[in-house]
Amino acid sequence: MFPTDPISNLAALIRCPSVTPDEGGALTALETMLAPLGFTVDRVVAKEAGTPDIENLYARLGTEGPHLMFAGHTDVVPVGDEAAWSHPPFSAAIAGGEMYGRGAVDMKGGIACFVAAVARHIEKHGRPKGSISFLITGDEEGPAINGTVKLLEWAAQKGERWDACLVGEPTNPESLGDMIKIGRRGSLSGRIIVHGVQGHAAYPHLADNPVRGILQLAQALMDPAFDNGTEDFQPSNLEVTTIDVGNPAVNVIPAKATAAFNIRFNDSWTAESLKAEIVARLDRAAKDETLRPGRQPVKYDIVWNERPSHVFLTRNNALIDSLSGAIEAVTGRQPKLSTTGGTSDARFIKDYCPVVEFGLVGQTMHMVDERVAVADLETLTGIYETFVARWFGHAAA
Ligand SMILES: [Zn+2]
């Protein structure tokens, strides 16, 4: 049977308790939907020492180009306090026009709608002239080591190439049609360790208080602003997220102080240029004598988080116009093209093909009583179906 109904597709997916790293039956449920449509389905297990094995899914319909990829994840975050839910989190209960369940919007709902959209497209027009694939991971909400990155590498190694990708994460703040994500800010984190000399608080000249040093360095990280934003991005922003001394004694000057920070940065920086700017600021602040008159520069080390997320911006008109036009045709609303919010797996996909993100309304994601308006499932399916037709039409033109 063709999986043309997004509501029953989503119910089947929600009923699989696929909390990361458990597959929970969700990929099997998806495979059951895709097989009758003619997709060739591969289940790819990714392993890495120190992390749980993760099952992922790659499915392709067609052998020719152009090739459109839909990407997403079937894993979900834990339910939290199950007793606090109005309906059991893996029951897919419908009440008041909404379907309840963990993953309803983030993002089993997006997958359910895209499957229904492809099924309807095939039912009406036959197979598209080109290929459609699903790249679905079970490790987005967890460490994201055995997920999209490895699945992309696996597929690319066996010769898969894509022309465009749509990620079905929830992107709308209030209602369907608000927002397409066409890029994401980068993210970089680090930790600063200031080394002082321990001593008696009454004899500070015999000691070197690292608290004075860490305050100077932290100040320099936050002021002045890194930039004023760009045409497509909001200003880069750094937050000092913790300052730790852990000193239980008020009359002892401690030997060490540490601080951690995270910066979300726009396309006026790369992770590398930003690191250089941060080190330059810290070196200048280390020599500042405001809080440490007559002292040698602050002695500090900086440790960078190993895996920064790189900033990206998609400028592919066929992709953006097809999606934006489909949203307008179905909802009558013109979506905002945005680069706000946190990172997503799109940051990995952008290395292979142009990528945009559009899915459900994100309001209840990760919350107790995560739920989706049943009407939205029908609307999103309509948008995806129109998008598929327009994108292949565009590619053929
Ligand atoms: Zn998600």
Describe the SSE topology.
Layout: H1 6-14, H2 26-34, E1 40-48, E2 51-61, E3 67-73, E4 94-95, E5 98-100, H3 108-125, E6 131-137, H4 148-157, E7 164-167, E8 179-181, E9 183-184, E10 186-195, E11 199-200, H5 210-222, E12 237-244, E13 252-253, E14 256-265, H6 271-287, E15 299-304, E16 312-313, H7 317-331, E17 336-338, H8 346-349, E18 355-357, E19 371-373, H9 374-396
Parallel strand pairs: 3-6, 3-7, 7-18, 8-17
Antiparallel strand pairs: 1-2, 2-6, 4-5, 5-19, 9-16, 10-14, 10-15, 11-13, 12-14
Task: Write a compact overview of the structure shown.
This protein has helices at about 5-15, 25-35, 110-125, 150-155, 210-220, 270-285, 315-330, 345-350, 375-395, and strands at about 40-50, 50-60, 65-75, 95, 100, 130-135, 165, 180, 185, 185-195, 200, 235-245, 250-255, 255-265, 300-305, 310-315, 335-340, 355, 370-375. By secondary structure, the protein is an alpha+beta fold.
